[in-house]
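Q: Got a minute? One more chain.
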Amino acid sequence: MKIHPLRNEYLGMAQMRLDSLTKPLRSLGRLEDLAMWYVAVTENLTPKLNRKVIFTFAGDHGVAGEGVSAYPKEVTVQMVYNFLRGGAGINVLARHIGAEVRVVDIGVDHDFAGLPGLIHRKVRKGTENMTKGPAMSREEVLSAMEVGRSLAEEARAEGVDIIGTGDMGIANTTPSSAITSVLTGMPVEEVAGRGTGIDDETFRRKVRAIESAIELNRPDSGDPIDVLAKVGGLEIAGIAGLIMGSAEIRIPVVLDGFISGAGALVSYCIEPAVKDYLVASHLSCEKGHKAILKRIGLMPLLDLEMRLGEGTGACLGISLVAAAVRIYNEMATFKEAKVSEKL
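A: Always. Here it is, folded:
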């Protein structure tokens, strides 16, 4: 399917509606932009925003064996169970905004054996160690992206109105930094961050691991699939596929932070038109996230010094989109309220 740019006539009609509401022009600032964006994405002048879903993709990373994270690899599995029990940050914020969390095993190095509540779409049990060779094959990347696409299609069939992206995977800021460096052309040290809170020695080790992986694998910056295969992650590929699939069928997408940003950057480099369907919920503390948003051309809604992932930032972003849609739908016009307009 083709991803079409937003149609100016919907943006224009939404602007006319907003300008007729009982407020000075543009006095609600970016909330008005969000309302126009939502109308144009959905191509609905009386939009609804009822069903909200956060997709949290989980996958493991071979590069964790290089000691690049403050937490052991087992935490990925443990957090999947925590998500399903409703005890994680994403669960709390999703309940706060009335969203559903869908946890996707796309690449965890564990056999969940039909665990209820988990979406079982495992492509493989974790990636290879990218400092020793490619993280995965091109075919595995395409399979992971197809998982994301199919989830978008299922969501549309169920009447989901908006999607948020999320992730879980110990060491996944390492492949995200590698992807960011390759696709933005920035040095590794300028886009790699502290992830789960690593110390100076671990950070230096992380930078060396990323530089080594890029030097060894020589990912082609002109081929985002090659970049994903050589230095990426399964959950990142799944997010990229979800974004592209959602844009193809006009579902609005709210991005979380750095790892979601890496998936968005891949999708943007494949098809720049996806930008029209994306909102950046917040600016992560991970310094590579700023480089990603600049490359895509997105302005984050919030800067709360967050770096948890899971889809937590996406929840907050969706709450702002929902507020914007309510303003658009429910606020009275000058005529309806019998309020005098500006002279």
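A: The chain has a mean pLDDT of 97.
Q: Perfect, thanks.
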